[in-house]
UniProtKB/TrEMBL annotation:
InterPro entries: ACP-like_sf (IPR036736), PP-bd_ACP (IPR009081). This is Carrier domain-containing protein. Residues 37-81 form the Carrier domain.
Length: 87
């Protein structure tokens, strides 16, 4: 048995919050923001967020309208990534 594993790390709400805290995505994400609070990602922030997901977690998400409706809160983003991009 080898130590190598193709499994991706689970993307948690904390990880999503950390990525969203990048000033290029959300310049002033409140520290105490509830996971269900409404978010409004602009197109540049969304592209940067998706780029960071790919760099840090190897998750490739194509920007399409089908999933944009899912990215309305930290919880919804986390659930979408768990449903669609976790083995």
């Amino acid at each position: 048995m080898t130590a190598e594993s193709g499994a991706r790390p689970r993307i948690t709400a904390g990880a999503v919050r950390e990525l969203l805290s990048d000033p290029k995505i959300f310049s002033e994400l409140p520290a105490g923001l509830d996971d269900d609070a409404d978010l409004a990602l602009d197109s540049l922030g969304l592209v940067w967020f998706l780029h960071q997901l790919e760099l840090r977690y190897g998750v490739e998400v194509e920007p399409s309208e089908a999933f944009l409706a899912e990215f309305t809160s930290i919880r919804r983003i986390t659930e979408y990534l768990a449903d669609v991009h976790e083995p």
